[in-house]
Amino acid sequence: MPKLLVHRANEQRSIEYAPGESLLHILLAHEVYIENPCNGRGSCGKCGVIIRGAEYERSADEKRFDTGSKRLACMIYPKDDLEVFLDGETEKSSGFVNAKELPDVPYVPFVSLKTCPVEPPGLRERTSWKEMLEAAFGPFGHELLYGLELRGGDYTAVYAGDRAIAIRPGRHEENYSVAVDIGTTTVQLILVDTARKRIAASRAFVNPQKDFGLDVITRISYISEHPDGIDRLSSAIRKSISKAVAEMAAEAKVDLDDIYEIVVSANTAMEHIFMAVPPDSIGRAPYAPVFKDEILQAASFAGLQAGKFTRLYVLPSVSAYIGADIVSGALATDIDERPGNVLFIDIGTNGEIILKQGAGMIATSCAAGPALEGMNISCGMRAQEGAVQDVVLNEATGEFSLDVIGGGEPKGICGSGLLGAIAEMLRVGLVDKNGRMVKESAMAPDDVRRGWLGERGGKAALCLGDAAFVTKSDIRSVQLSKTAILSGVVALLENAGLTAGEVGEYIVAGQFGKHLTEDMLVRTGLLPQEARGRITYAGNTSMKGALKVILNGPMRKKLSELSKEIEFLELSTVEGYDKLFVRTSYFPSEE
């Protein structure tokens, strides 16, 4: 059989393969993951690799993409020995989550410890060890006795709420929990020192499932098309979380057996995949999830490698597309307790929106697509070092400035940079309300804006550098994304009989959202013009909600109630939604 010699960073691996499948499929089948947002359908041009050892002619489809010396793995069907060179980036932990302090809530931790001396049963007593322990700690299940060392002295009971979940010999005072936010793009973890009410360590890494598709629908398609798809995706996320938990414990010098709970917040599809439950029903009408209630079980049952006593708590959802991350966000922001009409929006690949009106809450979800996170864009990339995160155009001088993460030369443009560039193009008149770019022929000969225009890949583009440009197709992608979100906002408002001006506060949530300025949001039409001066930023509310229920056990009841109280509006059932979509598709006019 022919072999692949795969190089990545300082590592290399030999793979035997049977010809007949694409190079991408072969790599994925052997757990070598590379970015392929379109799930190997040949539409994104992101699975570029360098090959040596044999020549394979570029097909007409592959020639559509300007990949330089790289070849698209989804379009190569190897049959020879090959060397394959991949970008050095793999699943990489940043080692840091931007959370400096825990939420300010009444301190009633869900997990608590109690230590008591327990004497062994005497010869004359008709009693048992279980009865002696229960006299100290209250009733508990027989399973807590399995493997328990029985001797006189101190014992420590671990309680989840008012229920004993573990009994340990000796005196134990350390008490840790882990909050996990499984985002479609990024996974974040915080190790909480519950006893001292502080952050002990944190981790963040790119969701390894991205190599099976950038968005939820693409991943669901992968699972439905591959018999082992659910096992691959669930295994990828479980292994990554287990690894991150072990790294945090080592960094903070914490015994894994002192970690008593892992709390998971995610959208509905991510929770299904994490629990190895096929999410196929989420991707087709009537879009019914397999489950949406909370899950409580031993972490080991979910395939997580943590401590002997670690429990898993998966937060409840509302529907297929309003997940636990949004319920957690509602809890984190106390949206139900805020005065007046409030709109909560988590902007990302899937835009989720909650409208709070009086005592009622109604939510909707809109498929914004990955463009807002820099994906499926000509020179798009994630928000990492080298990414342009904002653009300023000076129409008086013809100069421009780029805000590049980490400084240095730009390597591409992330979502906020793309929105910033388009907001500026709208401001200086390079793009009209229909999303069309102004042609050079329509400009005066001395118009300084001419210097910004050019072509990339045969398409008209705003050209600010070799790796910093925005084509007309990129503008169209953003226009579709912003229309999806704004149409969801307007649909909720019209359903409630409200205008945008009657909303007193627009809460923008999410790690991505906090990098979007008011100008980006309003000038591009992601939010209504009336939102100016009313926008607040809440950060990663999915994580904040998970932290809240760690620090305050009674809040779990409120979380459960929120998941039942939030109503859901399915946009496809809204009368006249097609016309509403068209009506909200225009960029705001500067006139």
UniProtKB/TrEMBL annotation:
<dbReference type="InterPro" id="IPR001041">
    <property type="entry name" value="2Fe-2S_ferredoxin-type"/>
</dbReference>
<dbReference type="InterPro" id="IPR012675">
    <property type="entry name" value="Beta-grasp_dom_sf"/>
</dbReference>
<dbReference type="InterPro" id="IPR027980">
    <property type="entry name" value="RACo_C"/>
</dbReference>
<dbReference type="Pfam" id="PF14574">
    <property type="entry name" value="RACo_C_ter"/>
</dbReference>
<dbReference type="Pfam" id="PF00111">
    <property type="entry name" value="Fer2"/>
</dbReference>
<dbReference type="Pfam" id="PF17651">
    <property type="entry name" value="Raco_middle"/>
</dbReference>
<dbReference type="GO" id="GO:0051536">
    <property type="term" value="F:iron-sulfur cluster binding"/>
</dbReference>
<dbReference type="InterPro" id="IPR041414">
    <property type="entry name" value="Raco-like_middle"/>
</dbReference>
<protein>
    <submittedName>
        <fullName>Putative metal-binding protein</fullName>
    </submittedName>
</protein>
<dbReference type="InterPro" id="IPR042259">
    <property type="entry name" value="Raco-like_middle_sf"/>
</dbReference>
<dbReference type="InterPro" id="IPR052911">
    <property type="entry name" value="Corrinoid_activation_enz"/>
</dbReference>
<dbReference type="InterPro" id="IPR036010">
    <property type="entry name" value="2Fe-2S_ferredoxin-like_sf"/>
</dbReference>
<feature type="domain" description="2Fe-2S ferredoxin-type">
    <location>
        <begin position="2"/>
        <end position="90"/>
    </location>
</feature>
